[in-house]
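FAQ: What does a multi-protein file look like?

Like this. Sequence, then tokens, then the next protein.
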Amino acid sequence: MRKTPTGSRMTPRLRAALVAVAIAAISGTTVAGSPASAAPRHDTTQFKGVNWADPRDNFADDPVVLSGLSLSDNYARTYAKASRIISAFRANLGANTVRLPINPYTVNGSYWKSYRGVIDAASDQGFKVIVSYWEGTGAQKDGFIDDQATYWPMWNTVVKAYKNDSHVYFEPMNEPHGYTETEWADIAAKWLQTYPSVPRDRVFVSGAGYNDHVTSVCADPRLKGTYLSLHHYGFWKEYATYDQWVSDLKERIGDCADRTVADEFGAPMTTGLDYDKPAPSDNFVNYVQAVTDTFRELKMGSVYWPGLRTDDTYSIQTLTGPSSRPWLATTNQSGADRLAWAWGRGKPVRP
């Protein structure tokens, strides 16, 4: 600490300033009184995206192969196909984010070299890429990590490959419904502790249960600084009004909207529903209008399920063109309109 010149006297104002700085250093606050260690407010509106899925819904006991790709494709072919599909997500929907599945079969085996072509193609186009672990199918589909002995080596490989790529985000598990709230928070905290080199604002901690509420993980101080991922679906209720859907969504978010991204939500897109017009008697129209209005109101990012999944009535895109040069077409323009509205663009629902 620098001494004051010999014979000089500190003025009351200088003394007060030095005392304030000393108190701030001890208490962890700035001189103005704001917490110096407080995590910066996240901008979740930056995530405007879609899920790209395996036709089997990403639950698999072998490598996940995204719709439009092939297990026999090498890195170059995977990269080329993925580049076109990512470009189509942007051109057709205005998306800038894609959420992708991984599992140990994909990462720990020979397919990983090819599958990296998807992540690299998206990152190279400036897309944000959310990489999420999916459990297996059949008896494995129970909401638990299938095998700790393969789970952690999987993440070791993924983190090593992409920890320095600021476009890539890590989601330790999709829908951890087998665990209690406390058990799941413990696992998420262990993931953060295991990979301290990953910035917390590049980690998505799933809400408890089926990612169906974020209030418990939001309240856990060990998970401070991470994003929180929420799932929300219209099929959870046989029928609800617009207002009831708004209330249901907000209850699941609590006061955590500034950290939350809805990285799965969806509704039928190939059955002819018009989401641009009110239809109070239709549950799914009420749902889509309510959640997209709420995401926009709360300034929340959102990632639709699915952007592309073969033979899924919820898919808002469908494959066109030859398999070697795939492109996409929009299955429901009113659904695309509602995505644009949720993402801060477009027009409100017509009266």
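And here is the next protein:
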Amino acid sequence: MTGPDSDEEAQARPSSRARRAHKPRPPLAVLEERIGHSFADRSLLTRALTHTSKATGRGGSYQRLEFLGDRVLGLAVADQLYAAFPDADEGDLSRRLAGLVRRETCAAVAASWEVGPHLILGQGEVMGGGRRNQTILADVCEALLGAVYLDAGFEAARAIVAAHFRPAEPTAAPRGRDAKSALQEWAMSRSLAIPTYAVVERTGPDHAPRFRIAVQVEGLEPGLGEGTSKRIAEQEAARALLDREGIGAAPEAGPTETA
């Protein structure tokens, strides 16, 4: 039979979830080794790991670095694909590019670097599983590439892309149309109106906005998608609707915003 003292001890003892939330972050040198770059300016690395929920002041999070890293990744992959596949046409190169820079690929690369324990998150994000959140991992992957670019230049960033994204490997390019095209073709084949897209929510600062968009198809519940541009969010919304309704096979790769 438990008494008052044991009850008090149980209440004072932190839960396993709370203990995980306060677990010390491993040394940054461990992450640098996995990425393959030792930072001359460690503040760039720290900022690339800092979520908006923990940032102090404007520009203290990874958002600006993510914006830059997205462009660095796109150029590095496009450059290496162009050299590796001299006989490929623009469509084939575009499909390969889309498959390599998509959110899921970036999240997988970040996971391979074991970024999660290094993330600097607010308590709510930690308790909500932010260290495993695919969107956060993908964003941080791009932010880290942006940080490497600022720290050591494009060649250093390109070497990391070549090592971890493997754009020059002769793998099959993703097949199929992008999600918006696939959904539109499906609707037209059934004599339905062309799908319509509407912005549900816009958040974030002007330099790093995030959009939540709904796609509507006659007779179906809307599909919702999020992204750093309207174009990306529309693709995610179309893909979500295709997946939910089991309409064919949702395309593996959607485009990323490069302008």
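Q: Is there any per-entry metadata?
A: Some entries carry free-text notes. For the entry above: Confidence is low (pLDDT under 50) at residues 171-176, 249-259.
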